[in-house]
Amino acid sequence: MNIYREITNFFNGIKTEKRIIGSSLQKRNLYAIKLGEGSPTGIAVYGIHGREWLTARLAKAHFRDGNKQGVVGSIWLVPLANPDGALLSQKGLTAAKGCPYFRYLSAYSNGELRLWKANARGVDLNVNFDAEWGTGKRNVRRRGAENYIGERPFSEPESLALKRFTEEISPDYTVSFHTKGEEIYWHFGQGALQSARDYRIGQALSMATGYPLRLARGSVGGYKDWCISTLKIPSYTVEVGSDAFTHPLRGAAFWNINQHCGGALVALSAAVQNEKDDKRRKIYASGDCSGETWLEAGGSAHRGGDCLRG
C-alpha cells in the first residue's frame, strides 16, 4: 500500500488540466487536478495530515463523481498535500530513507509512526499558515507527530506551495477534508456579513453530508483559517468518518465516508453559485454595481463590474 504511488498513477492518467504545484520536503510531487470549467472557482485539499491519507481516495471519488454529476464552475483538487507524512504513517521509517530528519524519526516513539500527522520535518502543516499563527490551544514549539507550528508561518515547502497556488488561482471558496468526527468547521472570526454568508453556504454542505456545522474554538493557523482571514472567502474543514473508527482510517471506513461526502463538492459549488446569483439580483435591484464584492464581504477577485458577468 502506497498512497503516493496511487495518487501519482491517478494524476498521470488524468486527461484534463492538471499541474504540479510544488514538492514536499523529500521532493515528492504535490499535484493539482482541475474538475470542471469556469466560475465559481474552488480549491479542495486532501491529505494535509499524514495519518489522514484515506482522504486522498475521496479526492479520486470526487473527481469521478464530479465529472458524472457536474460541479458548478471549476474546482482544483489537491489530492495529497502531505505525501511525506502520509507515507510515514503507512510505511514507517522505510519512507524516510535519505531524509535529513531520519535519526529524529527513528527515535520518535521507537519509530512507530502510524499516527504521524506532520510532514517529514515534524511540522504540522495545518498549523503552519499565517492566521493567528502560534496562538492555538494545542500549539507546540517542538518537533513531533502533531501540533508543532514550525519556525515561522509557511516555513514548510508543502504549506508554502499551497499558499502560492491558492493566491495564483484566487478561488471563490476552499474546502479541506480531514478525518475524523463527522462535523464541519466554518468560522474564524469573520465579521457579521461574511459570517452570515459563510454560514448560508455551509448549510448546503451540511445538508449534503449530514454533518453539523461546528465552531473550532482555540484552533488557529490552518488553511481554512488563512483563507477566511486573509482572502476573505468562504472556507470549510470537513472532518469525515465516524469517531467509531480509529486512526489511521483504512479502507473499511471509506464506504461510510463516500456515502456521506460523495456529493459534497457538487453541493458546495452550487451553493456558492446560488450566493453569487442572489448577490447579483440584489445589485440589479439597487442599481449599484460598484464597490462591494459578489459575496458582500470579500470575494477575492470579483469586484465592481462582476455583476455584469456570469
Description:
It contains nine helices and eight strands. By secondary structure, the chain is an alpha/beta fold. It has a single domain, classed as 3-Layer(aba) Sandwich (Aminopeptidase), CATH 3.40.630.10. An eight-stranded mixed β-sheet has the order 1-2-4-3-5-8-6-7, sandwiched between helices.
How do the helices and strands follow one another from N- to C-terminus?
A: HEEEHEHHHEEHEHEHH
Helical stretch count? 9
The unreliable regions are: 296-310
Q: Could you give a short account of the major beta sheet?
A: 8 strands, mixed
User: What's the mean pLDDT score?
Assistant: 92
Output the strand order for the largest sheet. Answer: 1-2-4-3-5-8-6-7
Q: Which percent range describes the beta-strand content?
A: 5-15%
Tell me roughly what share of residues is in helical segments.
25-40%
CATH homologous superfamily placement: Zn peptidases
Distance between the termini: 44 Å
CATH topology (level 3) name = Aminopeptidase
So what's the overall shape?
A: globular
- The number of strands is 8
Gyration radius, rounded? 19 Å
How is the secondary structure organized here?
Elements: H1 3-13, E1 18-23, E2 29-36, E3 41-46, H2 55-69, E4 74-78, H3 83-91, H4 102-107, H5 157-169, E5 173-179, E6 183-185, H6 192-209, E7 213-214, H7 223-231, E8 235-240, H8 251-261, H9 264-286
Helix pairs in contact: 6-9
Short description:
The chain has 310 residues and is of the alpha/beta class.
Relevant terms:
single chain; 310 residues; alpha/beta; Aminopeptidase; eight-stranded mixed beta sheet
